[in-house]
Amino acid sequence: KVDLKKLGDNFGALDLSNANLMAALNWSKVDLSTLTSEQYAVIDWSSPEFFSKIQKNLSRLDWSQVPYDAMNWSLVDFKKLKADVYEAIDWANVNHDQVDWSKVDLKKLGDNFGALDLSNAKLMAALDWSKVDLSALTSGQYAIIDWSSPGLLSKMKKNQSQLDWAQVPAEDIIWSEVDFKSLKVDDYEASD
Known about the structure:
single chain, about 190 residues, mainly alpha, about 0% strand
């Protein structure tokens, strides 16, 4: 085992591409905020062993340094992440196919919801639309959502009043799924 106390400020000099060293480190005692750019680049972010050791300290990562394309997002336990980690993650660069969306707290996404790729079938199937702030949808997201998908508007029933109906193509709307009781006069005019 490596005695981290003796390393002190020299942790940044360690070669984390060395598998034996990576296995020997007690990652629960590593201050992840001290990782260097070079160390971020050589860490095997797809390693389940490594990830299980740092899971509790993900808030200490510099998410701007994490190589998103090398990350195995299925290893991230999103239920355990705090809101500040959700905010730090660049969701536009996350591999949406690897994420277990049932573990993602949509409320913690906040403004980052606009970075989600709503053309991703796995994400769309997993979204609990009743928990989505539909007013946060971007124009780009409105454009790629398949509004003719059966059941979609029914899943949004609780918060349909948050939709910008002017951005929903009227010809794609399944009108039997619209909750007209929740709509305002402006919504009727917008969905013409």
